[in-house]
Automatic annotation (TrEMBL):
UniProt organism field: Hymenobacter glaciei
Annotated PANTHER family: DNA RECOMBINASE-RELATED, DNA-INVERTASE FROM LAMBDOID PROPHAGE
Name by which UniProt lists this protein: Resolvase/invertase-type recombinase catalytic domain-containing protein
InterPro entries named in the record: Resolv_N, Resolvase-like_N_sf, SSR_resolvase
PROSITE patterns according to UniProt: RECOMBINASES_3 (PS51736)
Ranges where the Resolvase/invertase-type recombinase catalytic domain occurs: 2-147
Highest taxon of source: Bacteria
Pfam family, one: Resolvase
Amino acid sequence: MRVAIYARVSTKDKGQSTENQVPDLVRYAGALGHSIYKEYVEEESGGTGERSQFKAMFADAHRRKFDMVLFWSLDRFSREGALPTLQYLNQLESWGVGYKSFTEQYLDSTGLFKDAIVSILATLAKQERVRLSERTKAGMARKVSQGVKMGPPTKSQAEIEQIRRLEGGGMSNYAIGKAMKMSASTVAKYLE
């Protein structure tokens, strides 16, 4: 059986690494007697399907370049919630491609209770993403209450005047931002 390995972490800077996943997935596939078609590895949020390697894996699955996707755990596969995750897994199955979780042995495309288990795990993964967002917002609110100013640094009066001069000279917000090494939305903020 040809297996595609999918490994994902959310960030590059928080001590996470796909190196914690890939070697075990490769060994596991070998122990099952499967050959590895390709490793799809990325450092992206699982909160959206708009991930380059995730999309590439689905394109290859559609072309039946492999027979099964092996991933570390359901939350490494997707954190979009029950419905989108089930739709991804059902899409794979409709193309004749199975799936299997390394850490959740009961989660594979041949299990009797796969739909119920996938739904529960996907909901838990989405809830963790919601909790992370809530913790981040609470931390930011605490900083604001302590007088910490959030957002990009305020521009000096000289920079603001230069933005206005460039805009008066007919430059677009994008061109001004590029010239002054700031975003077009920051430029627009100072032209209001």
